[in-house]
TrEMBL record:
GO terms for molecular function: ADP-ribose diphosphatase activity. Belongs to the Nudix hydrolase family. It holds the Pfam family NUDIX. GO terms for cellular component: nucleus. Residues 74-159 form the Nudix hydrolase domain. It comes from Baudoinia panamericana (strain UAMH 10762) (Angels' share fungus). The lineage of its organism: Eukaryota, Fungi, Dikarya, Ascomycota, Pezizomycotina. InterPro entries: Nudix_hydrolase, NUDIX_hydrolase-like_dom_sf, NUDIX_hydrolase_CS, NUDIX_hydrolase_dom. Keywords: Hydrolase. One of its GO terms (biological process) is nucleoside phosphate metabolic process. This is Nudix hydrolase domain-containing protein.
């Protein structure tokens, strides 16, 4: 089974709740070596923006946000795939990825996902990312409306 090198592992979860590890898990655990400020000139993927706006009470406000520099003509940055595996003799199951995310210094449980390349449709990106991250080939059955993952675009967390 092929894994994108940034992935920690690939799991299959049956609809009865059984979890199975597919392929080899990474042996070495990732670790943060250094955290330092990033200048606007060095940033390849994001830029900081200052948003000046007026709220519903008429009060002027300022908001700081990060925006992707890579957004293409589709107006959509990335795709996330909710892959459902169907087998004639078994119940359906779902693939999930374990991926280390440096901003939160933790391994996260995620659907396969990735950025849309220039000239790609979201559907094409979904098929490509599924293959790159899991080794599976698939077809797009449905596509959600555009959603936002972190409206404040911060390292905020929740429990």
């Amino acid at each position: 089974m092929y894994f994108n090198r940034s992935r920690i592992g690939l799991l299959r979860i049956s609809h009865q709740g059984r979890i199975r590890c597919l392929g080899k898990m990474a042996q070495q655990q990732p670790k943060i070596n250094r955290i330092s400020p990033l200048s606007a000139e060095e940033a390849k993927w994001t830029e900081l923006k200052k948003i000046e706006w007026t709220d519903q009470t008429g009060r002027n406000r300022v908001w700081e946000a990060a925006a992707r520099k890579t957004r293409g003509k589709t107006g959509i940055d990335a795709v996330a795939i909710a892959p459902i595996l169907r087998h004639p003799n078994r119940p359906p199951s779902t693939l999930i990825i374990l991926q280390y995310r440096p901003p939160v210094e933790a391994t996260c449980v995620e659907f396969p996902a990735g950025l849309i390349d220039e000239g790609e449709t979201p559907e094409q990106a979904a098929i490509r990312e599924l293959k790159e991250e899991t080794g599976y080939e698939g077809k797009v059955v449905d596509c959600s409306p555009t959603i936002v993952a972190d409206p404040g675009l911060t390292t905020a967390n929740m429990q």
